[in-house]
Amino acid sequence: MVGAKIRLVLRFWRGVNPGDALGLADKRMTISQRIDFRSLISWTASLSRKMGLICTRFAAGIMAERAFTNPYPDYNKSQAAGYFDAYGRLTSEFLHRINNKIRDLLQQMEVGLKSADPRDCTIYTGWAGIALLYLHLYDVYGDPVYLQMSHEYIKKSLNCLTKRTITFLCGDGGPLAVGAVVYHKMGNEKQAEDCITRLLHLNKLDPRAPDEMLYGRMGYVYALLFVNENFGQEKIPRHHIQQVCEMILSSGENLARKRNFISKTPLMYEWYQEYYVGAAHGLAGIYYYLMQPSLQISQVKLHNVVKPSIDYVCQLKFPSGNYPPCVDDSRDLLVHWCHGAPGVIYMLTQAHKVFKEEKYLTDALKCADVIWKFGLLKKGYGLCHGAAGNAYAFLTLYNLTTDLKYLYRACKFAEWCLDYGEHGCRTPDTPFSLFEGMAGTIYFLSDLLVPAKARFPAFEL
């Protein structure tokens, strides 16, 4: 009974990060009060959908309520001159501002982490996320102090693994994968191999795991790919990765048949009995990976199964250019990496690369316009649902098109982040973590130093 009510609440609280989705209704309430509160929320949301109260104009108003009005003029050459030259190289002044802010935020983060949850091992909100940040800073700056810091944090993470969840972001896959890379870079191959062995054994941990990114099989696949990419060799056997991918494809085909989606799309996936669309829990995140060359999905499967499934997601697009949190949701209101255009854009850009069709790029450009207008979120500056995460969408488009307009937009979102804490944003539950808080903003700012190498952490390949 309680599980059913939780699923109902998730329909309303889409866009809230894992943990918040349940936690918002939990604070200062008894169990019976929580259930009543959740039921009321669910009933209200359900009623509003059935009555069709949300039109496009009203939805735009709701999106605007969740974001600050973008105060910046859009791209022109004279405006951009203060940030980069005609070749996309950042100016020395802007580089100086970014580097100074990174140092300042790192100091604040280290102080704040003294009160962080000592038992949170995850990439998303825990110690492994901080280890991943310092590993990235080591790659950017080459300072061995950052590698040592990464080592200290990954040791904390490996000492408190969940022993339940297999994924990179919210499970043991992330700490083990990052641990393997850190030990490898430190020259400790024995410890690195131990992490890899334990990572491979995770596949047997939960045969009923979902398929999505945060808690499911695709999040495990990313952990495997992360190791191979950072080792520069096939440390994880190709057949092991392909085996998991076959399970994901089979699961999607079975659910599409079982739930009568087969006439619309060959694949369908669910999480908590909802058909999520976005990058974190949904179709866009799964399809983004299924198109990756390193997964070696057959051309027949790509064109006959994956491509029509992507086209189905494209049909869900709102007139605004944004995407719904779920297949059956008519509310155009979330502009987050986890739900909405900032996450779907990665599926679209990858589809353009793989299938060479202009329609995918056209839709991706519409996503970018939505993000530019509604992407400075009141939720904060983080990766999952914040300005830094949304800015990565501009960088991925810049790297695909070389259009300086998108580099400019990323720089303006970075400028917003340079005024961290001055806009009246909501304080996250884990304010110094990688995906909710300050660590993610630092990661983005350091990625912007070399835009051509920028990749959304723990997701983009």
UniProtKB/TrEMBL annotation:
BP-aspect Gene Ontology terms: carbohydrate metabolic process; cellular detoxification; peptide modification
Substrates-to-products reaction catalysed:
1-chloro-2,4-dinitrobenzene + glutathione = 2,4-dinitrophenyl-S-glutathione + chloride + H(+); RX + glutathione = an S-substituted glutathione + a halide anion + H(+)
**Positions that bind Zn(2+):** 338, 384-385
Annotated Gene Ontology MF terms?
glutathione binding; glutathione transferase activity; low-density lipoprotein particle receptor binding; SH3 domain binding; zinc ion binding
One Gene Ontology cellular component annotation held by this UniProt entry: cytoplasm
Q: Which protein family is it in?
A: Belongs to the LanC-like protein family.
Entry protein name: Glutathione S-transferase LANCL1
Q: Which organism is it from?
A: Monodelphis domestica (Gray short-tailed opossum)
UniProt lists the gene as: LANCL1
